[in-house]
## 1
Amino acid sequence: MLKDYFEFQNPVKICAGYKALDNIGVELAELGGKRAMIISDKGVEGAGLLKTVLKAFDETEITVAAVFTDVPSDSSYDTVRETAEIYRAKNCDSLVAVGGGSVIDTAKGANILASLGTDDLAQYAGAGTIKRTLNPFIVVPTTSGTGSEATLVAVIADKKKNQKSLFLSKYLMPNTAIIDPRMTLSLPPIITAATAMDALTHSIEAFTCLGKNPLSDAYATSSIKLIAPNILRVIKNPNDKEGRYNLAVASTMAGVAFSNSMVGLVHTLGHSVGAVCHVHHGIAMNVFLPIVLEYNLPKVSNYVGELLLPLAGADAYSSTAINDRPVKTIDFIRNLKDELYSAVGLPRTLGETGKVSKDKFAEIAKTAIGDASITYNPVEMDYSDALALLEKAF
Ligand SMILES: [Fe+2]
């Protein structure tokens, strides 16, 4: 179908490669940073990754003026405010996020407060509410999944409302993303699997949602082609530098894709089970992905069928009749889920997560109806549809 109009934007400078991190001081100085605040979490610190980052700043003109490692796994308004307070108290002028989605999104939120001189984060929720450039901001991802290093999105939990707030602005895009596979080598296999399924979902939803466009399609399909063969390869051999590098680059590409097309119902449901039952985001993506693709088939079976090529390769694609490709795509994803379950125990259903009980379905469904990402799904969902999907996912 001919699109009336689309926009595509990726202003993030991407520095990728083994030891890419060694140039971080030069990159931050180029942005005008002199006093950096590093934002991270205890897991990253415990894995020794912060040492690598701090060492990279040695003998550069940058002063690391503050290091904050108390970001929880679910970023919240309170953590963002705390981070911004330290930033101000230590006279920082730039931010370096070292971590996964929660750390990066906390840094995005803190950059809003620090740059705009406010403590009221809620007024910047939604789209287009930030009106000017924020302070210099570099991201060093330590997982290969969120893609947040290349997106205009931040998801931050508003714990008072038991909801995840979405922040959308081109000014939230980091200036630079440094993709160094040394930062993901120690990622535990189950987290590797969960975050890779998040990246895969970003690309699949980018390719099938209403905001898709030819440029986001190019990033989405290229990243799927890299993710599909590398998930199990890396899980079987966690020290595989090339496999880690492929997943890391693919995850950033998936971020570029969905930042320019948005996501859909897998994320709607994932945000909701995350907010209500604290299911890990990547695990929720793994649970819902094939179920939502089936739900969306009436509107986008052709797009789902096309995904068989980057997922399964040219031979499987060409030997499958056109009409069979959509179902084969979904079968491929179900088989991948089974293999990940066998390899690392990645939960395939809501029941297997051990965190969701059916008496929570009403609250999850209600939360899902209010989630912004539902707008871009090709098939609409009402409250009773949400309940049926949750039942199927259990
Ligand atoms: Fe995601």
## 2
Amino acid sequence: MKKIKVIGGGLAGPEAALQAAHFGCDVDLYEMRPTRSTEAHQTSDFAELVCSNSLKSESENTAPWLLKQEMRRASCILLAEADASAVPAGHALAVDRVEFSRRVATRIEAEPRITVHREEVTTLDADDPDTITILATGPLTSAALAAELQRLTGSDHLAFYDSISPIVDATTIDMDKVYFAARYDKGTADYINCPFTKEQYDTFLDALITAEAVPPKPWEQIPTNLEARALNIEPVHYFEGCLPIEETARRGRDTLRFGPMKPVGLTDPKTGRWPYAVVQLRQENLRADSYNLVGFQNHLKFGEQARVLRLIPGLENATFLRYGQIHRNTYINAPTLLAEALQLRAHSNIMIAGQLSGVEGYTESIASGLLAGRYAASLAMGVQPVPAPRASANGSLTYYITHAESKRFQPANITFDLLLPLEEELRKKIRGKKERHRIQCDRALLAWDQWLTSVP
Ligand SMILES: Cc1cc2nc3c(=O)[nH]c(=O)nc-3n(C[C@H](O)[C@H](O)[C@H](O)COP(=O)(O)OP(=O)(O)OC[C@H]3O[C@@H](n4cnc5c(N)ncnc54)[C@H](O)[C@@H]3O)c2cc1C
């Protein structure tokens, strides 16, 4: 039987290691703390929750509940320990983080098949036929290992920053001032365009470049660049594609008009001409009740965003459901690189789990570790794993990361938008959102149970 090497002792790594060991495999688990820490971790404990202590909603028929229910049915070890460390938190599962980590450490110590190595891994051997490697080093993967991953996958396929565009509530857009159009009328007119006159553009630009930015947090400073230089590798900057909008605006008064606010080909039906500049709004979800501002990722304080973005014609009274953000987050371009059993397409002995694979959040990372551990055990025994079913929440998350549009790929939490939608007929018949969600959950759990019993 092949050996399993798990790199990363955060959330995905320990779950993967414990699952693989449970199925009879020998596992080497590597964690670099305390020899080397990350910018966010405070301890050398396994399963440290770096920020909040919440594993999200336990309300029946919500998407986070569904994900956890599936994990429980698959005997997820970290979730069982989270349940045992729960503290009162209304409808959410929140844990005593110290107790949670202690319990996970005890489970690892008690597992004779797991050998723990406290060291930083800096190289990956993709050609070793006797080892399955699960890489679960998370959003703050060390610089040396990130460089190794870049070498293995190609430098275009690893992101170091998460850039999130603001999202606006569709019902608060002034539809009299905006218009639907496709550039040069090519394709369907899916985008809402907010047209600017020159005066409006100048006012907006001045407000944007003078707005107050969020002070960088310690883990967002540039230690990666310093580390990178020390290692003689390319320093990490924002990718051009996710540069903060205020940064682009500072490059010249017309830079936005030739970039994300380009008006060419977007004829305004009211004037019959192209406006001076536009902001495009892209539908955010299937229900079309929210839209994101295309290319408007930024690093401004939320209050400043509200003030500046309401200068956009049509958004004067907009309600923002989410503000733009940019923060450090290392993740692969999973739609390009990853197969559904979480193996790198080009190096099938290497699997990626947790936040590094493009899922977002504590629970999602544990879920991904659960799948990776089971798949790795299967591979170690010489059996090609059967991926989790598309209809389940776990399967939907994997489906999203492996099938999303690669150019615009962003990490995601579990939401109903990722789940298999109901058939049109049924959707029309069932009006209430709650009832639709209940049916989706029932279907997901059925598919998940069938998968659990059918997989050897
Ligand atoms: C600052 C911050 C705050 C966050 N807050 C939340 C939140 O409140 N709620 C939420 O749901 N999600 C949050 N997240 C997102 C995410 O869910 C967590 O980061 C989660 O811990 C990811 O799990 P993981 O197992 O993929 O990575 P991690 O839990 O980060 O585990 C990765 C482990 O790998 C180790 N490691 C890294 N490089 C190496 C190497 N070369 N060799 C050996 N070991 C290595 C690290 O030390 C770490 O222990 C946050 C992320 C960050 C960065």
## 3
Amino acid sequence: MRYNLHTHSFYCGHGSGRIDEYAEEAQRNGFEVLGFSEHCPFPDGLLSRSRMPYSSMAQYEADVRNERRPFDILLGYEVDYFRRFDGYYESLRNRVDYLIGGTHFIFRPDGTMSSVFDGNLSASDLSIYADTTIKAMESGFFSFYAHPDAFLSSYQFNSEARAVSIAIIEASIGLSIPLEINGNGYLRKRGYPSREFWELAAERDVPAILSSDAHRTQDLAAPFSGLREFAADLGISILCPSSLHPLSFRKEQGK
Ligand SMILES: [Zn+2]
Ligand SMILES: [Zn+2]
């Protein structure tokens, strides 16, 4: 099944392409499902540099809802999880089709923060990453978890990284929340998807899905053949949607 549930656009401010241009690209590539998952803004402007203004949400949602194609289009958000916003996530989830979790930042007890992607994370940052990610998965808001191995874009794989990887993988299995093998990291060779992480995941038969995490229309379909090869090579069986409302997954047949 050809589908992608992790798609950005010009709305996020660091991507390009309109909603209809992604839909056109999906149609050209024979997709059966296209899900939009812009970085979710917060009512108080938290993390506003990496996402659309809160005031643009209605326009984004209308754009996606108004896009009609001979295949399914879903409306979603990719969300950084903070427990104090539980009420907000609840109302979002009632309004859109699905939410993806993703840990893009770590917040330290001393009040400082770092991007997971360019952060020079320390070993103690790593445990914050694991804690943030696992609490997000436990919240029950998310249909799957994006780039769970993103911390390896700025951290050398060692025994701490191994322990964090296993903790996240076991949470995914225990909670039945699929982990994503991420096409944006794959295309940009950013250190994820990490072979070490996904070897551990494969050994434990983690539920896994592929997404492109496209921020440009030309990246919507581009990573999938490579991602499939990556997964097949490690013996990871891939999920595809079994229902869209609500979104749920099943193993792909004969793969
Ligand atoms: Zn982004
Ligand atoms: Zn992300």
## 4
Amino acid sequence: MATPKLVGISGSLRRTSHNTMLLAEAARLFGDAEYHQLDIDFPLYNGDVEDATGIPAVVKAAERKLAQADAVLISTTEYNSGPSGVLKNALDWISRVEGNPWNDKPVVVMSAAAGRAGGERAQVVLRGFLTAFRPRLLTGPQIHVAACHEEFDENERLKGEIYVRELGQLMDLLRKDIAR
Ligand SMILES: Cc1cc2nc3c(=O)[nH]c(=O)nc-3n(C[C@H](O)[C@H](O)[C@H](O)COP(=O)(O)O)c2cc1C
């Protein structure tokens, strides 16, 4: 099989985002793969802008990358009990492009957040958002990294053995799902 293409989507645009770090850890644990993190720093969706100037090039490029991916990894932070607006905005814009890059695509969802639940509520909401796009959404192991500011070392590696083990299991399942 050709080297799998993985695309990551981080729900946080912060330069030192823990969700971006978690995605990089997931890609590392997946093993041999081409990994690309999607740029989702899109303008806010506004139907008037779409009518006047069409879908922004950055959105079209993101949709192309998604369509070409063998699997997609999404890590969301939790803002006020849900996924970030940045992530929802990206899903909304991408849904405006013709075709559906998510259809039957293996997708894993994870989260890292400061709170004790590690973004679990945001993940539940995010899974609901994704359902309409009909991906092959893996159900677990569920990864929600709590107190995320304490869970990565100076090399941006996950410290907790349980997180590493379960994320590795999730990546093994993803690899099998891609080969399906
Ligand atoms: C507007 C806002 C709302 C937040 N709400 C929550 C929340 O509901 N639950 C939680 O665990 N953390 C919450 N946090 C803290 C985030 O989990 C924390 O900032 C986290 O590090 C963000 O992820 P990142 O490192 O990938 O940017 C909130 C942070 C912000 C800025």
